[in-house]
């Protein structure tokens, strides 16, 4: 019985150390039209991973407004991306990570890959 418990404990430790990659997008909840929308990206994905950060106008359907390419750097420092909002109508917009190439591990469940933003 003790041997079974010891094996179960060892397996739990091995499984507990496996972790997926995280990607965390953060943008303000609202912004005044005409001001740049500044979003931050943090990730522990391997350097060189590339994805698109896309701004959508979100009504009944989503319409792409702008897109930028983001590449994870070797130092894994926080990266910032600006989207110009001058000339955009007020409403709800969605900033979303797209076309992410990642390993088989996938992203951790606490990853944040999109944010809704109100342009006032």
Helix content: 10-25%
- Strand tally is 8
| Strand arrangement across the biggest beta sheet | 2-8-7-4-5
Shape assignment: elongated
Mean pLDDT: 82
Classify the oligomer: single chain
Whole-angstrom Rg: 19 Å
Structural class call reads mainly beta
Low-confidence segments, given as residue ranges, are none
User: Largest sheet at a glance?
Assistant: 5 strands, mixed
Separation of termini? Answer: 65 Å
Number of helices: 1
Please provide the ordered H/E string of secondary-structure elements: HEEEEEEEE
| Percentage beta strand | 35-45%
Which features does this protein show?
120 residues; mainly beta; five-stranded mixed beta sheet; three-stranded antiparallel beta sheet; 8 strands; 42% strand
Note down, in words, how this protein is organized:
The protein has 120 residues and is mainly beta. It contains 1 helix and 8 strands. The strands form 2 sheets. Strands 2-8-7-4-5 form a 5-stranded mixed β-sheet, with no helix packed on it. A hairpin with a 3-residue loop joins strand 4 and strand 5. The longest helix has 16 residues, at 2-17. The chain is elongated and about 65 Å long.
Fold blueprint:
Blueprint (H helix, E strand, L loop, with lengths): L1 H16 L5 E4 L3 E2 L5 E7 L6 E9 L3 E10 L7 E5 L7 E8 L15 E6 L1
Parallel strand pairs: 2-8
Antiparallel strand pairs: 1-3, 3-6, 4-5, 4-7, 7-8
Describe the structure concisely for a colleague.
The chain has one helix at 2-17; strands at residues 23-26, 30-31, 37-43, 50-58, 62-71, 79-83, 91-98, 114-119. By secondary structure, it is mostly beta strands.
